[in-house]
Design brief:
Elements (H helix, E strand, L loop, with lengths): L1 E4 L10 H11 L22 H16 L1 H16 L6 H16 L6 E4 L5 E6 L6 H14 L4 E6 L4 H14 L3 E2 L7 H14 L4 E6 L6 H18 L6 E7 L4 H14 L3 E5 L9 H9 L3 E5 L7 E3 L2 H9 L8
Parallel strand pairs: 3-6, 3-7, 4-5, 4-6, 7-8, 8-9
Antiparallel strand pairs: 1-2, 9-10
Helix pairs in contact: 1-11, 2-3, 3-4, 4-11, 7-8, 9-10
Bound molecules: guanosine-5'-triphosphate.
Length: 326
Amino acid sequence: MVQVFGKKDKSKQPGKTGFVARLRARLNRGDSWLTYDLANLVPGGKIDEDVIDELETRLVMADAGVDTASRVVAGLHKQLARKELKDIDVLMSALRQSLLDMLQPVEQVLKIDSQEGPFVILMVGVNGAGKTTTIGKLARRLLDDGHTVMLAAGDTFRAAAVEQLQVWGERNKVPVVAQQAGADPAAVIFDAYESARSKKIDVLLADTAGRLQNQQGLMDELSKIKRVLQRQCPEAPQEIMLVLDAGLGQNALAQAEKFHAALGLTGITVTKLDGSAKGGILLAIADKLAIPVRFIGIGESADDMQPFVAADYADALLQGSRSATE
Ligand SMILES: Nc1nc2c(ncn2[C@@H]2O[C@H](COP(=O)(O)OP(=O)(O)OP(=O)(O)O)[C@@H](O)[C@H]2O)c(=O)[nH]1
């Protein structure tokens, strides 16, 4: 079955509208750091270079990074020079377009194809990013979409990680393939793949460790898992998904770059956009990495993770639920 996973059909996503409202309310706690009090910075409503510079500074402060921030406003400077930015409304719609131009290319839903055997999603990311929680939320969505799911407890470094996954599996009646702590994760995931194939399971969600003695050790372990899977099926893992904590700001970008260089990521899920994160990191990911952003997370419940929709995200950046410009 080939299926677009998490497609943007609102009628099939009862939580979608509520999610957009929650995103606006939770991103930067409902304030729009980007446009907050901007009207007061434009005396007489006249747009000048200072206003655009202020927007650029705010983007940098919100984790977009210097290069990305300057790319977002580059078009605005040109429009100002052409005297096109007549008032704050025109400026806002030009800024929105600029955000969309950057974000839209990474809005790419995950397509599940299990015709030739299990579709493997290898979940990677450092401990605490929200990997296990994301596996649970993804499994829930897949089950709701009618897929069969199996979990592989590939984080054998921490016994608690295996237990966490087993509890989740029992609660949702999803099989979990696990071995004792310290087992070779590539062997666990190999066994899981064989089991999933013989049971004709649609999707295998493989957890991995987020912390080893050193970073090279972690990357070597993940590369080995990928190699072992590819020997079983050249296309596997069909998705290598990085789970990234938005609260890390620009460090999240550095983290993503390292995982991408070692593994070749095919998707990113950004979690914890409801915390202290300002959310500009999504712009940096789109601009610097161009890796599809599959889902964003704004809380702990299953409904708090939804497919990334660039327009909704740009709107939340521009107008929080308590935005002064609304
Ligand atoms: N506020 C908030 N918390 C989240 C989100 N996603 C996950 N969490 C929480 O973050 C914490 C860490 O999540 P885990 O799923 O255990 O993280 P992990 O990456 O698997 O870490 P280990 O289990 O230590 O490997 C948990 O308390 C989650 O409930 C989110 O989008 N928002």
